[in-house]
Design goal:
The protein is α+β, with helices and mostly antiparallel strands. The chain folds into two domains: about 100 residues; about 130 residues. It has eight helices and ten strands. A five-stranded mixed beta barrel has the order 1-2-3-5-4. Strands 6-7-8 form a three-stranded antiparallel sheet, with no helix packed on it. Helix 1 crosses helix 6, helix 3 crosses helix 5 and helix 6 packs across helix 7. It is globular, with a radius of gyration of 22 Å. The relative contact order is 0.15. The protein binds adenosine-5'-triphosphate and magnesium ion. The site of magnesium ion (MG) has 4 residues, from loops. This is HipA-like kinase domain-containing protein.
Length: about 280
């Protein structure tokens, strides 16, 4: 099971997230981004976060550490926003915590470079778990201390929404033409050669064992939570073997020129500026 901490203070909601995640402090003195069981997306989103987030970490990809967070909704009583109040009230018990990366900024494919080996590993991993949520519109990657980090694996493994069709669904190709790293010439063949042999039944079983029982109980068609855990292992194991041959990268291979603003790329002018100096267009500074 995931390490368990207790939420001690609700700090602030993260409005960028569709599921209204919040920044929450815990009794281990850590600060986490908390994803709530009471959110409209449902607890399967949290199962996907754990299985895919941990799997990526085991494969050496950068994903912030994950914990299970015990929430007593009473900690949100002072929260003025009714939507947040209701979310907290509906989420008593275990929720998901992801280590908060302070000072991180959203990944912009036009302002950052990613090597083709790393891009290949991320695209291959997203193909394995069928992540439909790492597009240039919504990258779900952060840059922290100069490195890209992967977040938000809630919209993966579409097959867990329809178990009877899971095997057929897991055999399907992966369209990466909208992937945020598609233009970095991802070397998916090299990534597959490196990563696919590591995705063993043992590794997947160990990762599935980390999901709290509370998010797995009473799944229609399954008698025990361990039976459901095994159902997560099978499609991923089957997919690891050959998914790289079924990845479409599309035509977006040329990267447009950087649109990083001038103040980021040009050397700074000495300060203070001399009075009367003119900008290049003749306007006063
Ligand atoms: N570990 C983290 N450290 C710092 N900021 C984070 C972290 N995780 C998420 N965020 C911030 O919160 C935002 C929302 O997070 P996330 O994408 O996981 O939520 P979501 O509700 O699943 O979002 P959506 O479904 O709208 O993509 C991110 O875009 C990012 O700005
Ligand atoms: Mg997101």
């Amino acid at each position: 099971m995931l390490e368990e901490v207790v939420a001690t203070r609700y700090v602030t909601p993260l409005r960028e997230g569709g599921s209204l995640p919040g920044i929450v402090e815990a009794d281990d003195l850590g600060t986490y981004v908390m994803k709530f069981t009471g959110a409209g997306q449902g607890r399967k989103t949290l199962v996907a976060e754990v299985i895919c987030g941990l799997l990526a970490r085991r494969l050496g990809l950068r994903v912030p550490e994950l914990v299970a967070m015990e929430l007593d909704p009473v900690i949100g009583l002072g929260e003025p926003d009714q939507e947040v109040q209701e979310l907290l009230k509906a989420s008593g018990g275990l929720n998901l915590g992801m280590d908060y990366l302070p000072g991180s900024i959203g990944f912009d494919p036009l302002a950052y470079e990613v090597g083709s080996a790393e891009a290949g590993r991320v695209v291959w991993f997203d193909a394995l778990v069928n992540n439909v949520d790492r597009s240039w519109r919504n990258p779900n990657m952060l840059v922290w201390h100069g490195d890209p980090w992967l977040i938000d694996h809630g919209a993966t493994m579409i097959w867990h929404h329809n178990w009877p069709g899971a095997e057929a669904s897991a055999a399907k190709p992966y369209d990466a033409s909208d992937h945020v790293l598609a233009s970095f010439r991802p070397d998916v063949a090299a990534a597959a050669a490196e990563l696919a042999p590591q995705v063993t039944e043992e590794l997947l079983t160990e990762v599935a064992a980390q999901v709290p029982d509370a998010w797995l109980v009473d799944e229609p068609g399954f008698v025990t939570t361990d039976e459901l855990r095994r159902a997560y292992v099978r499609p991923l194991l089957a997919r690891a073997a050959g998914v790289h041959e079924r990845i479409t990268l599309g035509k977006r291979t040329e990267r447009p020129a950087s649109r990083a603003p001038g103040w980021l790329t040009e050397p700074a002018r000495p300060w203070p500026h001399t009075a009367g100096e003119k900008n290049e267009d003749g306007s006063a500074r």
